[in-house]
Amino acid sequence: MLLWNYLMLKALLLDLDETLCDTEGANFQAKLAMANDLEKKHGQDFNGLAFADAYVTGIYRDWTDVQRARYMPIIEQQSEEAFRLQLISDLLAERGINNVSHETAQAFQNKFDSDRLKAFDFYPGIVAFLAEARKLFSLVVITNGPEFSQVPKVERVKLAKHVDHIIIGGQEPEQKPATSIFNKALKLANCQAHEAVHIGDSLATDIAGALNSGITSVWIQHQQPLDAELGINPHHTVLHPSEIPALIYQLHQQ
Predict the structure, then answer these.
(1) Looking at the DSSP assignment, which residues form a beta bridge with residue 238?
(2) Which pLDDT belongs to residue 80?
(3) Please, is 71 exposed, middle or buried when counting C-beta atoms within 10 Å of its C-beta (0-12, 13-18, 19+)?
(4) Are 16 and 143 in contact (CB under 8 A)?
(5) CA distance readout (Å), 125 to 3, 26, 201
(6) Residue 252: predicted pLDDT
């Protein structure tokens, strides 16, 4: 157990995916299950893992310009779920499987979500860290992503039991890196920018947003390279979420 001294830091602003929770691990388990289901249905010659990889790439909106033009109107005019069902149909069509029924696409999408949620959990040690940190600081989670996917994740790990406030980007006018969402977090924490630290794994959203808001930033690098061309330089870097408690302790001794 860490014994922190009281210092000027009043709030920890925290990303959810790949910061508090092992989303990549949950995605991997769900992809394996999806691949297995597809190969059972369409035969061993069907590359289920390639399909599952393409599906996850799609739901994270890592799109080509053509895909963006196709899918954004569906999201804006219909729903996130409608987009994901269309994505499944499109990916199957690319592999020669046409005229996929709505029910079939829905079954694959539901199964993926269910498998991912079953595997979704905090990184080891994070729950204990949050319990200790909450004794001293206001804890605010800021997570990007649509309500469709983020609310079930939040509920799966009972996040509200472990932090003081939760902000879901898909429920806000703007998501990270917009300063508005960071300003909302500061207001909820009742503190100024210099009294907070934001911790996250994305240079483009977490770190850029914190820097633009005047908030000390901690980047969880995982296996990502530091892209100098982005011009985004975090104040502090850790390799894995397990290193967060020690860094916060260190910052509090300065």
Answers:
(1) 220
(2) 97
(3) buried
(4) yes
(5) 16, 17, 17
(6) 74
